[in-house]
Request: fold
Amino acid sequence: MVPRYARPDMTAIWSPENRLSIWFEIEAHATEALAELGVVPPSAAKALWDWWATNPVIDVAAIDAIEAVTKHDVIAFLTWVAEHVGDEARFMHQGMTSSDVLDTALAVQLSQAADLLLADLDALLAAIRRRAEEHKLTPTIGRSHGIHAEPVTFGLKLAQAYAEFDRCKARLVAARAEIATCAISGAVGTFANIDPRVEAHVAAKLGLAVEPVSTQVIPRDRHAMFFATLGVIAGSIERLATEVRHLQRTEVLEAEEYFSPGQKGSSAMPHKRNPVLTENLTGLARMVRSAVTPALENVALWHERDISHSSVERFIGPDATITLDFALARLTGVIDKLLIYPERMQKNLDRMGGLVHSQRVLLALTQAGASREDSYALVQRNAMKVWESDGALSLLELLKADADVTARLSPAQLTELFNLDYHLKHVDTIFARVFGKA
Reply:
């Protein structure tokens, strides 16, 4: 985790204090259930909760010192708790294995992280929707392969982004549900030394589902799904960030990141206004996606469990969620303050002498009786002249001067084919699909 790209609420989820607090709750709830089943005395659970009610400071350094001797993190934690709770602490961890604690705690942390990310997505969706509605009918050029294609609106570009991030949210809701599972099933998942009702009790207290069939661990396909979902969200972030970067090119300049008073773009060139935030988002997206492959590789553990997944998850759990949280917040800020230039969009629309209307002329010629092949050739030969003039010539005027074209379409008909509004007639329909009817 790099502090430069971290926000406090998400960082707190991965703090040792939060992790160890969750460990304690798991152990205390399990002891509570064991007491209800008559396996341990009720005084054991009471002693744990009474001590916890005093709001003890979790001494991470002391626990680390014990671990330096035991070489085992859960044993170090249990030893430290026992030093404070006293004799009743011996009833903790009855019939449990370390992974019962570690995996269930990780499920809680990932669920907490998902809740913050879902809130981040809600904020981003709100910002995108506001700007989309603001520019619903702002015409701009659509590009395929980076080349002028046909007119769209800037609002439609943002509506597409909204729909994409709305899908991201739905996936994350599903991934959260899948990762929010509890396993308190003992050394190899058979409940040989602990009643399944203990697992159910702990799961209910922590807001988790029970793992239907575990080994020593919760199966890692769940975690792979979670991190893959984060990777897809990162891909969507990069897609929108890349769009902004392209639109901020000097030759395009249809939109650009907000440039604050006093901001500098280059140590050498005082004139520079660079898309640094969206460039940064592209890099952050790469880092989030870098967690996906190791998460997938963690699925194939040996037999009932090996420990190869552990070191991986100590990295990717905090790093992927903290980075994605920061990235979503940064992208929300970019969209919220994005400078949008409708006049430049119109200028670029007009840049290539009406080439953007070529398909409509093609279709009109076919409807007027020409074959598709002949229609294509007629339009293309005039369009290439416009290309070669770098937009100085007008496609409409060239078509009006082409006898083969005017033999089928009148000048008035040709003029109507160059009406920009034709391309925008279904914007309301698309918006209703994305945002619902007004």
